[in-house]
Amino acid sequence: MNTTPRLPFLDGLRVAAFALLIPYHVGMYYVTWDWHVKSAAASRALEPFMQLSSPWRLGLLFFIAGAACQGLFARRGAVGTLKDRSLRLLLPLLFGMAVIVTPQAYFEVLTKAPHLLPGDGGYLDFWQAYLQGGKYCRGDDCMVVPTWNHLWFLPYLWVYAVLGAAVAALLRWPPRATALPAWGWLLLPALPLALLRIVVMPHYPTTHDLVHDLYNHLQYGWLFAVGWASRTPLAAGMWGAALRLRWWSLGLSLATWAVLLAFGSRYAEATPPDALLAAARALRGSLTWWAIVAACGWAQRAFTRESPRLRQASGAVFCLYILHQSVIVVLSQGLKPLALSWGLEALLLMALTFGLCTLAYLGARRVPGLALLLGIQRRPRNAPAAVLACGPLSASRPP
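and the corresponding C-alpha cells:
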C-alpha cells in the first residue's frame, strides 16, 4: 500500500523547471560557450543571466526526479519501478539517439567542419553514416556518433532510479525522522555539494559520459537521493523548512550569484589565489542547493492545490524535453537567411520552439506507438501523474 503523500506542488515545480530549458538552450546559441551551433552575433552579453540558473537547473531536475521515483517505488515496488523506468526512459533514449538528436549532430558538423560530411553533404547521407557509427573530429575535438546530446539525462536518471529502488528494497526498515532546525536543511545538504566542487570537480570535469563522469554522478546522485528521502520521514522536514526559508534562500542565492559574477570578472584574465578559488568553488556548489530550496519553497506558495491543467502540462514536459533542443537547432539554421536582429531572432526561436513542440505533443499523444517513443504516458484522466523529470545539457564552466 502506498503511504507516501502526494505533493501537489511537484507538478508545478516540474513545469517551472522545464520552462527554463527552452530559453536556456536558445541562449546557448548566443553566448560564447561551446554548443552545437553558434550565432554570428554570439557574445558575452547574456552570460551573467545564463549563470543565474546554470548552477542549479539540472540539480533541480534530479531532485524532482528523486522525489518522483520514491512515489513510484511506494506504489509499485522495486520490480515495478525497474519496469516502469526502463520503458519510460530507455525506449525514448534509443529512439531519440536514432531519430531526434540526428539534426543536432548534422548541423554541428555542417557549421563547424563541413568537409567531414559524407556523400554529397546532404542530411540523408549523414543520417545513414550516423547510424553506422563513427567519429567526426576537428583536431582533438571529436564527436562520436550515434550520440545522446541533451538526452544524457535519461540514462543517468535510469541508473539512479534502479539504484534507489534496489537500496530501498534491501533496507526495508522504516527511516526515522531527522530532527533538524530549519536552517539545518539550508546548510547540511549543501555541504557535500561544496566539498565535491572543491575536491572532485577539478580532477573529474563534466563529460556527460555515463561511465566517466564522476563529479556529475556524485552531485546529481546526491540530489536525487535527497529528493527521494524528502518523500520519507528521513527528510520530510525539508519541505516545511523550504517554505519557511523561501525568502532567505532566494536572497542567499542571488547574493551568491552576484559574488561569483564579481569573482569571474576580477579573475577573467588572472589566476586567483588557491584559497579564494576554493571559496568560490564552495559557494558555487552551495548555490546549487540554496536555489533548489528557494524553488521548493516558492513552489509550495505558488501551487497550493492540484489542477487538471497543471497535471496535463506536467505530463507534456517530458515529450517537449525530448524534442526541444533539436527543434531549436533546426530553427536557428532556418532563420539565418532572414538576417534578423539577434533579440528578435531569439524571441522567435523561443516562441516557435514552444509552439512546434506543443503541436508535436498534441499529435503524438494520439498515436500509441509514437507516444511511447516520445515519453508520453497514456493514462486515465483521473490517475496520478507519472513522475518524470526532464533534462538539459551544456552549462557554463564557472569556478
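(Above: one complete record from the training split.) The chain is about 65% helix and 5% strand.
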